[in-house]
Amino acid sequence: MGLKITKSSDPIKVDRLTICLYGQPGVGKTSLAYTSDSPLLLDFDGGAYRAANRRDTVQVHRWADVTEITADDLAPYKTVIVDTAGRALDQLGADIIRRNAKMGRGGALTLQGYGALKAEFIAWLKLVNSFGKDVILIAHMDEQRNGDEVLERLDVQGGSKNEIYKAADAMGRIFIRGNKRELDFTPRENSFGKNPGQLDVLTVPVDDAGFMAGVVGQIKERLNALTEEQREAQAVIESWRERIETMADVDAFNAALGDVRQAPKVCQAMFSQAAKGHGFEFDKAVGAYAMPVGA
Asked: Which of 115, 160, 158 is nearest to 137 (CA)?
């Protein structure tokens, strides 16, 4: 069976996202995540009771509590919140060692154990996504120093934090500036981020119960608008390609000069290359193509 190729002119519909939110303890990560669309929070950290706007929650005491999650379980919800991703990975690691003692040494995962953890965590995220749900991964922030410079990173064990970086479609940092909470998806010199929707730094309102739902919707809209723009741009290119193929004489090329000057540069390049292929030369003095002298 051959490759199933999605052409550049074909839109890729974005209907679900995996988003990572991280920040210092007490900055309101869980409360912010609860403002997503119809959320269900999987409370691995045991701290959901501290959120002022608590919504439906599952108290998760071990990884096995979520391995049998089904579409029916999640039917009433549109967003699944993992709080925190670091603690979820800790519980998954412990479960892997429980199932196979060779995967751990001294209570920590071996290299083979980390391989199993990466594979199982990604497979579980894909399962939740397959139910048509957005996923929000909450993570604490770890400050690391490089001389006088403070670097902000996810507070997640070992190499497993890389799985969160790779799994997240968008990654936002929550922080306090002045007396306001702000959310920044843009990667900075000292902090991580993923900003596929090209959002500005957002001020988090105190009383907007649907704020995160709006943010997720905005990212999807911008990603889908981008694919539509790509489709339209490719359609213009294909239209010019077909038009150029019908041009057989110098008069046809000169008749199209006014139009092609308004076309994308790639179309202009195709036009110029085709004219040269026919042996036509552009006369700058008169601003038109002509047959070469002696032709």
From this structure: 160
Per-residue confidence band for 162, with pLDDT thresholds at 50, 70 and 90: confident
- pLDDT (tens digit per residue) in 58-88: 999 999 999 889 999 999 999 999 998 989 9
Q: Give the contacts of 210 (CB within 8 A, at least 6 positions apart).
A: 35, 37
Residue 200's pLDDT is what?
A: 93
Tokens representing residue 282 in the block = 């552009």
> pTM value?
0.75
Rounded distance between C-alpha atoms, residue 26 and residue 48, angstroms: 12
Place of tokens 């429980």: 98
- Distance (Å, whole) CA 77 – CA 71: 10
Using an 8 Å Cβ cutoff, are 134 and 19 in contact?
A: yes
CB 168 within 8 A of CB 137: yes
Q: What is the DSSP string of 116-185?
A: HHHHHHHHHHHHHHHTT-EEEEEEEEEEEEETTEEEEEE---GGGHHHHHHH-SEEEEEEEETTEEEEE-
Alpha-carbon span 172 to 199, nearest angstrom:
10
104: exposed, middle or buried (Cβ count in 10 Å: 0-12, 13-18, 19+): middle
C-alpha to C-alpha distance for 154 and 143, rounded to whole angstroms: 9
How would you classify the pairing of strands 202-204 and 180-184? antiparallel
